Amino acid sequence: MNYGGVVSSPNGDVSLTVEVEEGEPVYHLKYNDKVLIAPSRLGVIFKETNLSQDLTLDYIESSKVDEIWTQPWGEQKEIRNNYEEIKLYFSKNESGEKMNITFRVFDDGLGFQYEWPEQVGLQDFVITDEITEFNMADDHTGWWIGAYQLNRYEHLFNETRVSETDTVHTPFTMKTDDGIHLSIHEAALTNFASMTVANNGNNSLEVDLVPWKNGDKVRGSAPHKSPWRIINVGETAGDLMTNYLMLNLNEPSKIEDTSWITPGKYTGIWWDMHLGTKTWESGEMHGATTEYTKQLMDFTARHGFYGVLVEGWNQGWDGSWFDNGDVFSFTEPYPDFDLKEVTRYADSLGVKLIGHHETSAGISNYEAQVDEAFDLYNEVGVEAVKTGYVGDFVEGGEWHHGQFMVRHYRDIVKKAAEHKIMLNVHEPIKDTGIRRTWPNMMTREGARGQEYNAWSVDGGNPPSYTTIVPFTRGLVSPFDYTPGVFNLLLTDKPENPDNNRVQHTLAKELALYVVIYSPLQMVSDLVKNLEANPTALEWVKAVPVDWETTLVPKAEIGDYVVVVRKDRNSGDWYLGGITNEKARDFEVELDFLESGKTYEAQVWADGEDADWKTNPYPLERTTEEVTSESVLELNLAKGGGVAVRFAPKN
């Protein structure tokens, strides 16, 4: 051993040890004096050289940071960035290639990053493997989806022991038998392959980089950096949900004036197509018509929502678009959709058209048109665009989450920022915190959303799904789940051979607006269903999408979650609570409310005999006065939920 050093987090809870043993760098991690990560290898293998062994540690630098920065929008307005850092400078014995590894130790986890400074020996390099390990101290319970599957990240989560996992996508969330929660992920994914995690046996996990179709993992030239490999840790599931280590490891915003970036709720010509009552393609059932768009805009303006998403407006949806993204034009509308007229009409009502670019994985076709397409949206006043990348592979066999697409997604975000356009990306690369650097990257899909309830052959997302997703996919937030379906049994659907439905109660659907965070939240159901239930619609109109503070007073992954958030623009607080198939009763202390004030608690709860399976619709609306010393009783039906607004009275 030629180095052995320990670095502790600012409060001492997290302790990192880094060692170099016979030329091989190794790290291990403790949390509250318990071994979390046993000794684990570090390093990267290039086609040209192996930088995981035969290394000499040349010198070490240490530093610390303690600062607070402000998100222009988000689930938490003020974020503290507080860590201890060491940077280790290595050189390869004999051949002399250079590699640095930086470790940042936070009170709630660890981040580390590889860096290859400019050097002659690593010009035009190819990385063939990364051998970074996460050797678990025990066989923890984990929640995961397999990495190399079709449909990208859109799968139900498995719950198994670490020893029973496959190669998995991150974030990979685990719970130890003594209750510690941890999650492995990455931050600041830029010009690199996405990281998955492979099961090596004996509770050992190793980074598995998603390859190019020829097998290369990463192509680059020094100077170059890897994304940060991160381990988030906390006592509770809620601690993971309020962990901002990933954001802290991203660069500050490159957009100086963010005043044009506007969170909001939106409606859309979208759910109709998933139900089969309208079509993307042209014809008698075409959804994206001028007339129907204006009707949606009337509804949107009437209830104070931001805008209307219109899918299927542009040429290319007829025929086999699903298999050939080259058919799309992003500037030519169908004859029954007058782009300039609908945007003029939107302006007259004070709402916005939300644009749509479905590429169907035709990347070259999209890149050839995107400048002109964004210019057109600038011309007519479109401020937000939903992009889509339906398809299992792109450009003849590249994965959605390999380096090729990582580069593409980042290029589109930058280009959108140049045009002052906000993005909502479906079939995306996973979020690694880039929204800090490019805050026009508002929200994304990257999991099974509401649409699976409309047509999935398994009938839809089970009641437990939304109690898992906040602690897996949702940890890297935001998620365009698209809540707001009031007709839970989907009686509008002409044919329903798989008995599709929304598998929870109406109160739970309302609670999702707080539990699942997105700065662009959809109000997804048909107008007739939304306006037929004014009590439920009252909540959707009231609940904000931009928060000052987020708290998670109660949560158990896969069972239940209670989330509390404070509105950024008022003194109101909001609570969302959901459960799986089991009914639950909770008592929640309201000590988060301002002391000395009285609040009106406006409650939307499961009504009498509510049950997700047999009676999902009963919704009870009540009010009561509360203070910071009050305890609120919550009664959740099977598959149920509760939504609460706390409005100051004095």
Number of strands: 37
Query: Given this structure, which CATH class of the domain at 3-248 is correct?
Result: Mainly Beta
CATH architectural group of the domain at 3-248: Distorted Sandwich
Report the sheet with the most strands, covering strand number, pairing sense and barrel closure.
Answer: 10 strands, antiparallel
What is the terminal separation in angstroms?
Answer: 65 Å
The rough form would be described as: globular
**Would you identify the regions where 5 or more consecutive residues have pLDDT less than 50?**
none
* Radius of gyration, taken over Cα atoms and rounded to an integer in Å: 25 Å
Please bin the fraction of helical residues. 10-25%
> What is the average of the pLDDT values?
97
Task: Give the arrangement of secondary structure elements.
Blueprint lengths: L2 E6 L5 E8 L2 E8 L2 E8 L2 E3 L3 E2 L3 E16 L7 E15 L5 E9 L2 E8 L8 E6 L2 E4 L4 E4 L13 E4 L6 E2 L2 E4 L5 E7 L7 E7 L2 E6 L8 E3 L3 E2 L2 E7 L2 H5 L3 H4 L15 E6 L1 H5 L14 H13 L4 E4 L28 H11 L2 E7 L4 H18 L3 E5 L14 H16 L3 E4 L8 H4 L3 E4 L7 H4 L9 H4 L37 H10 L4 E3 L4 H5 L2 H9 L4 E10 L3 E8 L5 E7 L4 E6 L9 E8 L12 E8 L4 E6 L4 E8 L2
Parallel strand pairs: 23-24, 23-29, 24-25, 25-26, 26-27, 27-28
Antiparallel strand pairs: 1-2, 2-3, 3-4, 4-12, 5-6, 5-11, 7-8, 8-9, 9-10, 10-21, 10-22, 11-20, 12-19, 13-14, 13-16, 15-18, 16-17, 17-22, 18-19, 30-31, 31-32, 32-37, 33-36, 34-35, 34-37
Helix pairs in contact: 4-5, 6-7
